[in-house]
Specification:
Blueprint: H1 2-17, H2 27-34, H3 38-60, H4 63-66, H5 72-85, H6 91-108
Helix pairs in contact: 1-3, 1-5
């Protein structure tokens, strides 16, 4: 799912790069433009594959155990965005990340 989020961001960047800086698209125009960006189809395919894997996992693990690990996306996506898109992460993110990891360790134990 994290890779899908990165691909959606890549789609958004591709749309923005094709526009003049002063031009903003409305919702409908943005959707039409997104349909012409190959990254969108990569993101949707990734989400489809992730959904199949999620169903596989849920056949073997109780939802109450598996679901908390979906929060790892909140850890992985911003770190990938830092490296891939040069987005800034403030100190409160890192503090929150520590609490998320501690929570997952408690749940997993």
């Amino acid at each position: 799912m994290s890779i899908g989020q990165i691909l959606f961001k890549k789609t958004a960047i591709s749309i923005s790069e094709s526009l003049k800086p002063e031009l903003a698209l409305g919702l409908f125009e943005g959707i039409i433009k997104a349909l012409s960006v190959p990254w969108l189809y990569c993101a949707l395919t990734t989400y489809g594959v992730a959904t199949i894997f999620w169903l596989y996992i849920l056949q073997r693990i109780p939802l109450s155990v598996a679901y908390p690990f979906s929060v790892l996306a909140m850890v992985i996506v911003p770190i990938l965005a830092l490296f891939l898109f040069n987005e800034q992460i403030n100190w409160s993110y890192w503090v929150g990340l520590i609490f998320i990891v501690i929570g997952l360790i408690i749940i997993a134990s």
